[in-house]
C-alpha cells in the first residue's frame, strides 16, 4: 500500500491537485492527513510499503506545531520500516529551534527528497541533506491541459475579461482591506471573479465589493483542467495570495499579480519571471512584520 501524505484536509484545492497527480501514478494509494485518527495513523503506516509526502509540510509560518506533527509521522514510518519519499516539497521557513531540529532529523530518514524551489534547495544544502531540485507537481497540468483542452465542455460566464481575485483569510484584515480597496478602485469598469480555492477565502473581500457585481467560482466544482479552461476563456488578470491559483492562471495565460504573504510566492516569481512582486507584496510584508 502507498500512502499519500500531506495537508489533505480543509478542502484546500491546491493540495488536492498535488494529491490527484500522485494518485494518477498510484491508483490504489490511500491518503493520510490530520483528519485521520491516531489509530488510523498507526494502522495505515504499519501496513504501508511507502509514504509519499507532498506539499509544503516542513514550515512553521502557518503553525509552530505543523513541522512537529509531520516529523512524528515520518519518525513512526521509519520505525515501521516504511519507505519515505519527500516529493516536490517546499521546505521552510523554519523559524523556531524545535521546528529546525525535528524537520532536520525527519528529513534525514527519507530515501529520496525533491524540492520545488531554490530557497528549499538552498536550505537543504545548508543542512547537508541530499536532494533533487525540481518543480511543483502542479506543473504536470501543462501537458494534461494540452491533451484535454479541446474536449472540455463547461458553462462559461457571460462576461469576459474578468479581474480574478484568489485570496485567503486576511490577517490583519484592516491592513489588507486598504490594499484591496486600491486594487478594486484601479479596475472599476472590469467585471470581478472571486476564485475560492478553500472555503471561506472570499468572505472578507465580499464586504469590500459592496454593491459591485461579481461572480464566485468555487474551485472544488471543477477539475484542474476545467478550471484552467475557464480562466483562459473568461479572464485576463489575476491578483492572488494562492500559489496554485497563480500556477493555474499562468497555464491559462493570464497576467499575474501576487500579494506575497508567503515566501513560496516569491520563489514562484523567480521560476517563471512573469508576474509582479510590486507594491502589493511590499505592503503585505509590512503587514506581516507588524503582527
What can you tell me about this protein's structure?
The chain is of the alpha/beta class and 291 residues long. It has two domains: 2-134, Rossmann fold (3-Layer(aba) Sandwich), CATH 3.40.50; 156-289, Rossmann fold (3-Layer(aba) Sandwich), CATH 3.40.50. The protein is 44% helix and 18% strand. It contains twelve helices and twelve strands. The strands form two sheets. Strands 2-1-3-4-5-6 form a six-stranded parallel β-sheet, with helices on both faces. The chain has a six-stranded parallel β-sheet with strand order 9-8-7-10-11-12. Helix 4 (97-107) links the parallel strand 4 (83-89) and strand 5 (112-115). The chain is globular and about 60 Å long.
Order of helices and strands: EHEHEHEHEHEHEHEHEHEHEHEH
Strand content: 15-25%
**SS element count, helices:** 12
User: Which stretches are poorly predicted, pLDDT < 50 over at least 5 residues?
Assistant: 277-291
Extended strand count: 12
Offer a few descriptive terms:
291 residues; six-stranded parallel β-sheet; globular; Rossmann fold; disordered C terminus; alpha/beta; single chain; 2 domains; 12 helices
A few lines on this structure:
This protein has 291 residues and is an alpha/beta fold.
How do the strands and helices of this protein lay out in sequence?
Blueprint: E1 2-5, H1 13-25, E2 30-32, H2 38-47, E3 50-54, H3 66-79, E4 83-89, H4 97-107, E5 112-115, H5 118-126, E6 132-133, H6 141-148, E7 162-166, H7 173-185, E8 192-196, H8 203-209, E9 214-218, H9 224-234, E10 235-240, H10 243-252, E11 255-258, H11 263-272, E12 275-276, H12 279-289
Parallel strand pairs: 1-2, 1-3, 3-4, 4-5, 5-6, 7-8, 7-10, 8-9, 10-11, 11-12
Amino acid at each position: 500500500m502507498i500512502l499519500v501524505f500531506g495537508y489533505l484536509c480543509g478542502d484546500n484545492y491546491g493540495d488536492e491537485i498535488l494529491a490527484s497527480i500522485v494518485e494518477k501514478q498510484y491508483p490504489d494509494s490511500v491518503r493520510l492527513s490530520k483528519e485521520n485518527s491516531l489509530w488510523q495513523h498507526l494502522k495505515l503506516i504499519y501496513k504501508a510499503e511507502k509514504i509519499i509526502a507532498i506539499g509544503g509540510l516542513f514550515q512553521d509560518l502557518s503553525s509552530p506545531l505543523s513541522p512537529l506533527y509531520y516529523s512524528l509521522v515520518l519518525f513512526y514510518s521509519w520505525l515501521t520500516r516504511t519507505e519515505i519519499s519527500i516529493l516536490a516539497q517546499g521546505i521552510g521557513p523554519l523559524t523556531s529551534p524545535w521546528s529546525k531540529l525535528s524537520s532536520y532529523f525527519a528529513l534525514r530518514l527519507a530515501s529520496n527528497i525533491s524540492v520545488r524551489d531554490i530557497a528549499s534547495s538552498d536550505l537543504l544544502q545548508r543542512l547537508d541533506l541530499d536532494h533533487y531540485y525540481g518543480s511543483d507537481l502542479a506543473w504536470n497540468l501543462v501537458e494534461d491541459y494540452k491533451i484535454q483542452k479541446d474536449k472540455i465542455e463547461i458553462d462559461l460566464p457571460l462576461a469576459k475579461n474578468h479581474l480574478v481575485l484568489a485570496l485567503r483569510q486576511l490577517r490583519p484584515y484592516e491592513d489588507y482591506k486598504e490594499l484591496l480597496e486600491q486594487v478594486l478602485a484601479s479596475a472599476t469598469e472590469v467585471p470581478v471573479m472571486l476564485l475560492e480555492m478553500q472555503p471561506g477565502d472570499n468572505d472578507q473581500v465580499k464586504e469590500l465589493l459592496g454593491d459591485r457585481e461579481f461572480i464566485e467560482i468555487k474551485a472544488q466544482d471543477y477539475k484542474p483542467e476545467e478550471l484552467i479552461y475557464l480562466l483562459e476563456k473568461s479572464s485576463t488578470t489575476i491578483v492572488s495570495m494562492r500559489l496554485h491559483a497563480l500556477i493555474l492562471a499562468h497555464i491559462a495565460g493570464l497576467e499575474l499579480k501576487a500579494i506575497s504573504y508567503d515566501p513560496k510566492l516569491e520563489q514562484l516569481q523567480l521560476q517563471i519571471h512573469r508576474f509582479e512582486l510590486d507594491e502589493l507584496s511590499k505592503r503585505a510584508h509590512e503587514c506581516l512584520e507588524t503582527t
